[in-house]
Amino acid sequence: MNKRRSRALVAAVTPMLAPGEQVMSTSLVNLSEVSVKKNIAMGIAAAVLSGGTMVAAATPQPIYLATTGERLFLFVANPTFAKPDRHLATYLLADLKRTEVERGLLKHSFVMIDESAQSALRIFFQRFGPGGLDVVAGQIPQAAA
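The chain above was modelled as a monomer; its predicted structure follows.
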């Protein structure tokens, strides 16, 4: 994530912070994965339906992730401008567990489990570039197998 996006995310998170709380890491992540097969099928369907004048490709919604020593924040990222659109969720790190990090060819991911709400969320980090995976994964304890 570049510095401009990081500054915009920190500015959006700052009003939500408790006194003395500081942002420790910022990342641009995805919460869902678009499979290659679905992307090819949608591109072919769009080309056929438009008579070959249009091609389409699906991309997952980018999400900004920021962590402090106590909380994890998620914001919907504006795909056009380098700023967060709206606050999506806030989790207490004390309530979170994660699975082992799965290291894929293009993306790395883990499932974040919120024990207080009994919900789970898969978070995808880009493999190349500074994604903050190790910092975020280090802040969330791994669930017992």
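The beta strands are 25-30, 62-67, 71-77, 84-92, 96-98, 102-103, 107-114, 119-126.
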